[in-house]
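// run 5 | inverse folding | seed 20
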């Protein structure tokens, strides 16, 4: 009887140990299953709130597409795909981390490629790293003659006519692929230029009426994007209501700035150079306030991004088209305001000669107040559109774009609203088109080079007027 009782007492301990061992096995299998997740090979990948992209175009040293090559993705997720007729390949991934895309070493050697493996970072919280673009098409220092057919040839008895036809088809494919890239980059440049124009027009109006180059204008762009994030994600507003909320906050900030800072400085006859230094300090204060309240991560205004679709050779989505349409309508409205309304004519008069406008009975201070409100409202709207276009807004987004705004207004002509529009389009198109020939990280440098050349040939900008000094 005693022995039976001892055995019964041991059963709970054995059952507990068995349960713990089973849970350990389940945990190990769970960890194993999470590390063996599979990415999804897709024809075209668009980053959203739930997935990132690793993609590229496989070309040889002569820019001919490499067709049918196997590309293997490894990292937190893994998969395998083959390049299509234009050399394109893409994977959709759901986990953040480092991913390595690998092609066969023999294919890389036969086509004169720099390497057969490249690593990229995917961070869905950062709009600039949702899409990792992998390039194998840079020729290495020691390369063999590239194969025009796009794959290593193993048969030695092919006829010359077959080789010629293969080279011709590859050249046609490469030409069509490059043409599609040209149209895509031109489209992206126009979209980016329109959004840059919304930011730059307001900055140029402030300069025209006050002579002040505001270094804090970029933070007005950031403010608009962050207020849209607050409206959609925290206050659960519809996107259109959040955009209106952001514009109202931006306009109110322009009014407060003018009444509390710039109007008192003007009344004390503080020079524009000193005021410009104040804008630099204000820019730093606002940046750190944004970082303190919203953190250093990118904030997504919307939780999902529309899937892309084709318009001829161009890949786009509904949000981009709507944003471009809004930018065009607003720019037309600002132009109508400046040239067809009484207040707009007064604004242009103050921009041309503030003293003469005041002597003619125009209330210069009222005009400047309206310009500050309009300028900051336009910047806030551009922040909303840019946040949607880039899938997020960060605490320093406006600061990154500030140099391009100054380039646009200087290129178009300081103090001219139409000049800011044209200059923004030129900067946007040149920046995006230049990535066809130079690394993507250097695309802004090409736009600034265009700015320097134009200023050397025409210092007053495209639409500016020569002014006699002294």
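// decoded
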């Amino acid at each position: 009887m005693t022995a039976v009782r001892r055995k019964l007492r041991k059963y709970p301990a054995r059952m507990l140990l068995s349960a713990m061992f089973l849970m350990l096995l389940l945990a190990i299998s769970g960890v194993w299953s999470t590390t063996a997740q599979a990415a999804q090979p897709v024809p075209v990948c668009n980053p959203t709130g739930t997935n990132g992209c690793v993609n590229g175009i496989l070309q040889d040293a002569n820019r001919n597409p490499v067709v049918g090559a196997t590309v293997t993705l490894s990292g937190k997720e893994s998969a395998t795909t083959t390049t299509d007729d234009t050399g394109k390949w893409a994977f959709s991934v759901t986990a953040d981390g480092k991913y390595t895309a690998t092609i066969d070493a023999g294919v890389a050697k036969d086509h004169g490629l720099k390497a057969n493996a490249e690593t990229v970072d995917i961070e869905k919280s950062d709009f600039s790293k949702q899409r990792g673009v992998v390039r194998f098409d840079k020729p290495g220092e020691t390369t063999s003659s590239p194969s025009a057919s796009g794959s290593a040839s193993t048969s030695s008895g092919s006829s010359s006519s077959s080789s010629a036809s293969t080279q011709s088809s590859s050249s046609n494919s490469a030409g069509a692929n490059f043409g599609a890239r040209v149209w895509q980059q031109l489209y992206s440049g126009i979209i980016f230029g329109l959004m840059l124009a919304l930011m730059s027009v307001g900055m140029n109006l402030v300069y025209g009426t006050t002579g002040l180059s505001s270094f804090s204008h970029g933070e007005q762009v950031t403010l608009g994007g962050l207020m849209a994030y607050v409206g959609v994600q925290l206050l659960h507003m519809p996107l259109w209501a959040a955009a209106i909320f952001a514009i109202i906050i931006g306009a109110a900030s322009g009014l407060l700035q003018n009444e509390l800072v710039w109007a008192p400085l003007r009344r004390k006859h503080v020079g524009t150079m000193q005021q410009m230094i104040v804008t630099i300090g204000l820019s730093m204060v606002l940046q750190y306030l944004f970082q303190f309240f919203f953190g250093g991560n990118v904030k997504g205004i919307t939780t999902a991004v529309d899937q892309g679709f084709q318009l001829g050779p161009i890949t786009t989505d509904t949000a981009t088209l709507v944003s471009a349409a809004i930018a065009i309508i607003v720019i037309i409205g600002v132009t109508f305001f400046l040239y067809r309304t009484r207040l707009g004519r007064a604004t242009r008069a103050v921009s041309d000669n503030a003293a003469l406008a005041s002597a003619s009975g125009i209330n210069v201070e009222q005009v400047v107040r309206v310009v500050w409100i309009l300028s900051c409202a336009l910047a806030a709207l551009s922040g909303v559109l840019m946040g949607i276009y880039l899938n997020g807004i960060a605490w320093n987004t406006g600061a990154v774009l500030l140099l391009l705004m100054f380039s646009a207004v200087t290129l178009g002509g300081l103090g001219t609203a139409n000049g800011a529009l044209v200059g923004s389009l030129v900067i946007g198109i040149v920046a995006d088109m230049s990535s066809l020939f130079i690394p993507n990280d250097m695309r802004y440098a090409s736009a600034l080079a265009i700015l320097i050349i134009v200023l050397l040939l025409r210092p007053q900008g495209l639409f500016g007027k020569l002014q006699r000094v002294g």
